[in-house]
């Protein structure tokens, strides 16, 4: 069975490139538009697969052209698709994404078939999953499904990574089942009320998660400033890898996927977070939430070229 199980959203991304976003009621001309496989769950599953891990994908798609293309993409990445739910009465989820000249993005998501996933689907899937080491889950599917998945994973002693995105869908109950959460700046502010602008405020947010929610481990992603690992009261700042950013869509998903891969390999949270920082840096330097995700071979080549290392390279360990 697969080392990593991912449960989450599956979408087709319609990505438009433009110099700047149109204002309300304004019409602007963009550069190009492309259809790309996406969705936070699907992105994270592909991230893990491209980094060399075996992956189960649990999610829901429509019986339509987008669903067929997405399933074909999963199979090309050797991702286990037997747990996919295919529904007739809903279209495959879709995200309309605009990327501007600074590589930042806006996103409008139509959930579609993603909302058809239910607790029975999760129980049925986990009855057949025995050897996964890590569960990777987000909040773009119904909350009851997320909580059921984490409960099932707990019973099988899997390490649970919760990417609390979007933050509006996160409740205290969902947070409590996670072994580590990985909020970005916006999600951290929504959940804690703290605007993270420095290492000090990131530490403050980490303490808030611990003291208010009982979350002992979190990684607060601070975009190009780096990340703050809060682990049982101990804090470690991990610097970002400087790159020329082309597309930030999927950066958080690449980070979550890389984190899961390292944990599956038995690495510590710090080692995993350092690995994830390199993967995310390489991702944002390329276009596409999935097409821009690095393979393990590309990652190793990038590390050699840029004098970087991580636990999987034999030169030295980044600890």
Automatic annotation (TrEMBL):
What reaction is this protein's catalytic activity? D-tagatofuranose 6-phosphate + ATP = D-tagatofuranose 1,6-bisphosphate + ADP + H(+); D-ribose + ATP = D-ribose 5-phosphate + ADP + H(+)
Q: Where in the cell is it found?
A: Cytoplasm
What positions does the entry give for K(+) binding? 247, 249, 283, 286, 288
Q: Which GO terms describe its cellular component?
A: cytosol
Q: What SUPFAM superfamilies does the database record attribute to this sequence? A: Ribokinase-like (SSF53613)
Its needed co-factors are: Mg(2+)
Keyword vocabulary terms for this entry: ATP-binding, Carbohydrate metabolism, Cytoplasm, Kinase, Lactose metabolism, Magnesium, Metal-binding, Nucleotide-binding, Potassium, Transferase
Q: Where does ATP bind?
A: 184, 252-253
Residue stretches making up the Carbohydrate kinase PfkB domain = 1-295
Q: Which GO terms describe its biological process?
A: D-ribose catabolic process; D-tagatose 6-phosphate catabolic process; lactose metabolic process
**Alphabetized GO MF terms:** ATP binding; metal ion binding; ribokinase activity; tagatose-6-phosphate kinase activity
The EC number(s) attached to this protein equal 2.7.1.15
Catalytic center residues:
253 (proton acceptor)
How many cofactor units bind, and how?
Answer: Requires a divalent cation, most likely magnesium in vivo, as an electrophilic catalyst to aid phosphoryl group transfer. It is the chelate of the metal and the nucleotide that is the actual substrate.
Give the binding site residues for substrate.
11-13, 39-43, 140, 253
Self-association or partners: how does it assemble? Homodimer.
Task: Outline what the protein does.
Answer: Catalyzes the phosphorylation of ribose at O-5 in a reaction requiring ATP and magnesium. The resulting D-ribose-5-phosphate can then be used either for sythesis of nucleotides, histidine, and tryptophan, or as a component of the pentose phosphate pathway.
- Family per record: Belongs to the carbohydrate kinase PfkB family. Ribokinase subfamily. Belongs to the carbohydrate kinase PfkB family. LacC subfamily.
PANTHER family named among the record's database cross-references: RIBOKINASE, SUGAR KINASE
Q: What is the name of the protein in this document? A: Ribokinase
């Amino acid at each position: 069975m697969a080392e990593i199980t991912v449960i989450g959203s599956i979408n087709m991304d319609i990505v438009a490139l433009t110099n700047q976003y149109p204002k309300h009621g304004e019409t602007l001309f963009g550069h190009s538009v492309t259809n790309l496989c996406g969705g936070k769950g699907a992105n994270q599953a592909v991230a893990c697969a491209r980094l060399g891990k075996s992956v189960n994908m649990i999610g829901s798609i429509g019986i339509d052209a987008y669903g067929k293309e997405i399933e074909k993409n999963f199979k090309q990445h050797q991702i286990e698709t037997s747990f996919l739910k295919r529904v007739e009465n809903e279209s495959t989820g879709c995200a309309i994404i605009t990327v501007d000249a600074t590589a930042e993005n806006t996103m409008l998501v139509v959930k579609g078939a993603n909302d058809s996933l239910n607790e029975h689907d999760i129980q049925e899937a986990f009855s057949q999953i025995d050897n996964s080491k890590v569960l990777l889950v987000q909040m773009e599917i119904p909350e009851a499904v997320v909580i059921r998945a984490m409960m099932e994973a707990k019973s099988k002693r899997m390490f649970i990574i919760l990417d609390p995105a979007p933050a509006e869908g996160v409740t205290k109950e969902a947070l409590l089942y996670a072994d580590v959460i990985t909020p970005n700046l916006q999600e951290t502010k929504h959940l804690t009320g703290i605007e993270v602008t420095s290492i000090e405020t990131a530490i403050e947010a980490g303490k808030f998660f611990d003291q208010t929610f009982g979350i002992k481990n979190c990684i607060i992603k601070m975009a190009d400033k780096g990340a703050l690992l809060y682990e049982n009261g101990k804090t470690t700042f991990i610097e970002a890898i400087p790159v020329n950013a082309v597309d930030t869509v999927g950066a958080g998903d690449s980070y979550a996927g890389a984190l899961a891969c390292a944990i599956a390999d038995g690495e510590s949270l710090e080692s995993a977070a350092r690995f994830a920082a390199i993967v995310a840096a390489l991702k944002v330097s390329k276009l596409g939430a999935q097409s821009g995700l690095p393979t393990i071979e590309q990652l190793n080549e990038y590390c050699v070229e840029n004098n970087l290392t991580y636990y999987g390279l034999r030169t030295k360990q980044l600890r």
